[in-house]
Amino acid sequence: MKQYVVVFLCVVFIIVGIINFFINVSSEDPMSIIEFLYFGLVVLSLQYLGMKILSIFMYKTDKEVYLEREKIIKKSGQLIMSRRCSGNISRMNYHGPGFKVMIYPRGLIIKVMGFKQPIPIFLEEITNINIKQERIADKLEIEHNSKIVDSPIVLATGFYIRFFTSLDDFKRIKKELS
């Protein structure tokens, strides 16, 4: 119920903000401080609704499934490696350090900035890991058969050998299990 109220308020702020904008553009009076601050509220409302819409495209199942999978992966052992990077998930591109990738013995967990739910991928679900070396940054393409997010996941990790070494350990563990 609370979530619907917030979405409704965001829509109201946006509509009133658009009307207010066109009134200000057509008048010769300078914009007041209150109107200027209100536009900030409109921008925050747009961002909130944008994140809600993006989460519909990115997440395929219920929130509880993601959290349960995350618990299983975290209980598998000590964190092998953690790194912030950019990349693509579910055909959506994130620039800057938008992802936090954590590698555990049982799988990897990707947390996307701005979203609460993590994206946990079990080791058994990973079918292939490709390293593509490009001019600006090395990209890691993780193909998987998980039903919770689209495959492949592409991570632009930069030139960090430590991250790739951890993924080589990850691939070695996977070979030992199969």
Relevant terms:
alpha+beta; PH-domain like; 2 domains; seven-stranded antiparallel β-sheet; 46% helix; transmembrane; transmembrane helix; membrane
General description of the model:
- The chain crosses the membrane at residues 5-24, 36-59.
- Keywords: Membrane, Transmembrane, Transmembrane helix.
- The protein has 178 residues and is α+β, with helices and mostly antiparallel strands.
- The chain has helices spanning 2-26, 33-58, 63-75, 161-177; strands at 81-89, 92-104, 107-112, 118-122, 126-133, 138-144, 153-158.
- 46% of the residues lie in helices and 30% in strands.
- It starts with a helix and ends with a helix.
- 17% of the residues are buried.
Give the secondary structure arrangement, pairings included:
Layout (H helix, E strand, L loop, with lengths): L1 H25 L6 H26 L4 H13 L5 E9 L2 E13 L2 E6 L5 E5 L3 E8 L4 E7 L8 E6 L2 H17 L1
Antiparallel strand pairs: 1-2, 1-7, 2-3, 3-4, 5-6, 6-7
Helix pairs in contact: 1-2
Radius of gyration: 21 Å
Strand elements, count: 7
Ends distance? 46 Å
How many distinct helices? 4
CATH architecture level-2 label of the largest domain: Roll
Output the strand order for the largest sheet. Answer: 4-3-2-1-7-6-5
Structural class of the helices, strands and pairings? Answer: alpha+beta
Question: Quick recap of the structure?
Answer:
Keywords: Membrane, Transmembrane, Transmembrane helix. This protein has 178 residues and is an alpha+beta fold.
